[in-house]
Amino acid sequence: MSWKDVLWVIGSAGAALLGISLATGNWLIPKRQPREQPPAWNQGTINAGYIGSQLRETDKTRATLVISYDLENNTDSDYRLNDGPSVVVLSRLKSDGSYSQDQPIRLSYPVFLPARQHARLAIEITQPFNWPSDTDSGSIEKLRNFVKQRLQNVGEFVLFDEASHRQLELPSGWGQLEETSQESD
Asked: Which among 86, 153, 77 is positioned nearest to 113, based on CA atoms?
């Protein structure tokens, strides 16, 4: 067999493969696998309503702001929520709608929410705070300022449960706190 015949066989084979690839759309070059998109956050299936806020003395150097919500499960499945690494609570800022983790926020206790039922949930923010003495005439104002500083730019809290890929919007209600404190002045 001559070189001419060898080149003709190779060329014919290449042309045949090219023709088959064009006809079937299957190229011999490996295709890049599309990146798998993460699943969307499941939101809106559980509604939350603000109940109230309470400031507690953790010890003489720290205070804990506890914010309570009523949860309503609109699904046919029970839902469990435990504080841990798969649960993240972020602040959504009023100023630009971005998320913030500038203060540690955690669940106060585990929550079991049966299908089509209501349950309570509380989150807490613990920060350094020198508690004023009972005889301090400005103690009420110091407590108000502590709460105001923690919630001043927070539009709402958003809880992300990475285990179930569920997102819960925890709305604000603390505007009522500011109105109440201004009325009592």
From this structure: 77
Alpha-carbon distances, residue 151 vs 90, 95, 154 (angstroms): 12, 12, 5
Per-residue model confidence as pLDDT tens digits over 34-89: 777 778 888 889 999 999 999 999 999 999 999 999 999 999 999 999 999 999 99
Find the helix packing angle between 175-184 and 139-151, rounded to 10°: 160
Measure the CA–CA gap between 165 and 40, rounded to whole angstroms. Answer: 8
C-alpha 163 chain-centroid distance: 12
Q: Which fold has domain 42-184?
A: Immunoglobulin-like (2.60.40)
Contact residues for 111 (Cβ-Cβ < 8 A; gap 6+): 71, 79, 80, 81, 82, 119, 120, 121
User: Minimal CA–CA distance to 63: which of 54, 72, 71?
Assistant: 54
> Measuring CA to CA, which residue among 54, 56, 23 is closest to residue 129?
56
> In the chain, where are the structural domains located?
1-30, 42-184
Q: How far apart are CA 124 and CA 64, in angstroms?
A: 6
Q: Are 65 and 55 in contact (CB under 8 A)?
A: yes
Per-chain mean pLDDT for the chain: 86
Q: How far apart are CA 128 and CA 140, in angstroms?
A: 17
